[in-house]
Every structure is written in structure tokens, then in C-alpha cells.
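U., I forgot to send this yesterday:
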Amino acid sequence: MDALNDGDGTPRALTLVERDAILNAMTHTRWCAARAATLLGIGRSTLYRKMAEYAIARPDDLPPPPPPVARPCEIPVAEPVRRFAPGTFGSPEANAALAEMLMAERGRVAAVAEAHRP
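Result:
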């Protein structure tokens, strides 16, 4: 190992730049490894490996993360679509009709599956 190279032949300047980039990304993302890895364009496991290689550890004196900010919904909410006549949704008659339709559909699906069984 000399002043220009590490023991593995990698230029020292490259390792310093890489270490600084990881530290900056981790600081910028408040030590969220997933976001830092995305920011750096590497996988999270690669980030963890490089952090171990460069002896980068999360400081113990980090302030707690800020509380989540409530953002107003930007998507307009449409009025619900009425599919049943007023007063029939949830009635015993409607529930019985729905159950009958579901049982008939289940029978049809079972018949098709049986016909295509090898």
C-alpha cells in the first residue's frame, strides 16, 4: 500500500470519493439506507457492504425523525356510483338474490374447471 493506492490496487481517491458519497447520501436521507441506496443508484445490500468496508456507522446522537406531514388528497373524489335502487341495497331480498347469483357462478366455474381437467 502506498500513498496513491490501497492494498487492492484501487486508487485511494476513488475510495475517498465513494466513502464521501455514501456519507453524504446517508446524511441527506437521515440514515435511511433504502432511500440512500436509491439516491446512489446501488442496491441496499451493496450499500450495507460498502458501509462495512468503509467503517461507516449511524451516529448514536441523531435527532428523532420529524412527524409525518399530513398532505391533502390531490385526487378528486367522485361521488359513489349507485348500482341498486334506493332502499334495496342491504335488504334481505337483495342479499338472497346476490347469494343465489354467486352460487350459480361458483357452479359454472366448477363445471368449466372440471371440463378442462386433464
